[in-house]
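Example 411.
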Amino acid sequence: MPIVFPHLRTRFVFPMLAMLVALPVAAEQAMPEATSTEPFADCIERLQQRGREEGLSEEVVTEVLGKVSYSEKVIELDGRQPEFAETFTNYLAKRVTESRIETGRELLDKHRPLLLRLQRQYGVQPQYLISFWGLETNYGGYTGFFPVLDSLATLACDPRRSTYFTSELMAALNIVDDGVPAESMLGSWAGAMGQTQFMPSVYRRFARDGDGDGKVDLWGSAPDALTSAAAFLQHIGWEAGWRWGREVSLPQDFAYIDAGRSNRRPLKEWRKRGVRMTGGKLVPALDVPTAVIVPAGHKGPAFAVYPNFDVILRWNLSDFYAIAVGHLADRINGAGPLQQAPPSDAPRLSKQQVEQMQTTLNTRGFDAGEPDGVLGRGTRAAIRRYQQAEGLVPDGFPDSRVMAGLGIELP
Ligand code: CA
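Predicted structure in complex with calcium ion:
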């Protein structure tokens, strides 16, 4: 997956999560898929039939689904490819800002009784709930202005991910049937809603009334949003009492070939290899499955990540996002900045440069897969093999030496 691209792109992996938690859709196989030539009105008629079969009220089928509009803008945003891969340094600097940390600390204080209750009930520590809230919508400051039903209907009628968006549309219509006014359902262009940006299938299962007013309002009520996030995190496997991970320092002779989130080993094994906490002590001799990741290469910060890191990835499958959630949570909880500042000179690669790099790696026998301009896992693995063959530090990070070695000019 394109883990180095910004949030909106990585959000595409959310469908995987939604499939895990979505209710089974009995009619899935029987329904014809959207085709690229089908007029929108015909598609809506087909979706209306589907809605009736799934038991939506006739009022919602005709008055709500019958009146959705096609959105050119949504298709345009959906097709947009970022021109440059985001660097870790830039990603983190934009998301974990001093003002976001400050506001997070204030909100942690303000909502403390609720947050402690949620921790008892769902096992998620207060700072993480505040952190997700801050990263998703800047604490409810920005929840999106796209009419969710228009977005979902447009994407459901587009052949590329029709199945997924059709089931999200049905979930959204069910929410309307349950009493949420259709016109109040505003969100991201891809249909994520409210202060924690839940897709409708997630909203249906995990939206909770946290302030006890008898209504669920993920747009207007912070306690409702925080409670829903806690319920969802518990469901996707949050391990009570555990951290997400931590910044570590690696020994000089660290085998970078073993870095990466797919290589889990007991923390005590990393301890034997000399992995230390930032204070200087060796990491504890525990059995917890741990990976060591270096998102900005061996010159940047290193992190030991625990099972809750994977839980954050189930919310949004991006290493950068998961580190940002964890680090912001730590900062909100009183920790200082990263000890090893992310390097400022990391090259910012264009899609074209990544494609060129992939082609060159392929030509030289380091299989990077079909060149697509996306710096994903396969490409990083190919870079590692190249680095190893060249006697460079095999961290999978395309620094200026790698680019020069592959004959790719940097600006
Ligand atoms: Ca409420």
